[in-house]
Amino acid sequence: MKIKRISGALGAEITGVDLTQNLSVGLAEDIRAIFLDHNVIFLKNQPLTSLQFINFAKTMGTPVEYPFVKGFEDFPEIIEVKKLEHEKINFGGVWHSDTTYLDCPPMGSMLLSKEIPPYGGDTLFACQYAAYEALSDTMQRLLNGLQGISSSANADVSKTREDRIKSDGMESTPKSFSCAHPVVRTHPETGRKALYVNVAHTAGIEGLTNAESASLLSFLFEHQVKPEFTCRWTWESNCLAFWDNRCTQHNPINDYHGFKRVMHRITLQGDKPV
Fold it and tell me: What pLDDT band is residue 274 in, cutting at 50, 70 and 90?
């Protein structure tokens, strides 16, 4: 197994691993350690069946169902993330950490590329450890203890789900979710602090007026995705990405109109942010 860093902030490509085969306990532990060190990992040339995909996910955590889109009949924890040739809006096409509007947002997410466009469709990732650590001591003290209010009803991101909800929506899902989480969370495994707000879901900050929240969040939303905190991944068919939702954000780039892009996604159970 070899590791190649993608950027200075986060991201590593792992080679020499075949995920179609059952992983030894030791190899699974090594992969998870690399994941914790680099926040997002990538493995190319992984033509996984749904069963192989879910089996790998189970070595990293506990797969859970996504609240808005139905999964596969035999594998409800796997959803299809797709943009069809006639569609203009891509699923989740804004900077975000997955489903922060839930009480216990997912620990991590996995994406397996099945059909990619001839160009475009890259995904950006941003390290929220680096974003927090680059703030002044005064700003860090100000943010620690604040609670951000996350909502699934934010217009910018809810419209990116509309096509998939129409075609694959969960009939029993509530129309919206809302939850408060720390603006700065402590990673439960590494102990490091990370910014935990995002432009897609964070609608305000408890105890602040709308104007105060808007001003502070506007600064944080711009700061946390500075180029020096990011990496960019260009997809190939049968490539798997696995990112840590507790300390990263991601943004799929919508620059391939007229072409189809199909990915399979699994999210892994997380804990309540503190």
Answer: very high
pLDDT value, residue 162: 53
Q: How much of the chain, in percent, has pLDDT values that exceed 90? A: 89
> Bridge partners of 194?
185
Catalytic residue list contains 257:
no
Mean pLDDT of the region 200-221: 97
Specify whether 86 is catalytic.
no
Active-site residue, selected from the candidate residues 185, 261, 264, 265: 265
For domain 2-268, the CATH superfamily is Clavaminate synthase-like (3.60.130.10)
Q: Is 223 a catalytic residue?
A: no
Of 38, 201, 246, 250, the active-site residue reads 250
Catalytic residue among 98, 187, 201, 246: 98
Tokens of residue 228, six digits: 């020096």
> Any alpha helices (H) in 147-240, and if so which ranges?
155-158, 162-168, 210-223
Closest CA to 69 of 84, 79, 77: 79
Q: What's the sign of the alpha-carbon dihedral 105, 177, 195, 226?
A: positive
The answer to whether residues 68 and 173 touch, using CB atoms and an 8 Å cutoff, is yes
Q: What one-character-per-residue DSSP string does 7-57 give? A: SSSS-EEEES--TTSPPPHHHHHHHHHHHHHHSEEEE-S----HHHHHHHH
16 has pLDDT over 80: yes
Task: Name the active-site residue from 38, 96, 185, 201.
Answer: 96
**pLDDT, tens digit, for every residue of 127-185?**
999 999 999 999 999 999 999 999 988 756 545 445 544 556 556 566 689 999 999 99
Radius of gyration of the chain (CA): 18
Domain ranges of the chain: 2-268
- pTM score, whole prediction: 0.92
Q: In the annotation, is 250 catalytic?
A: yes
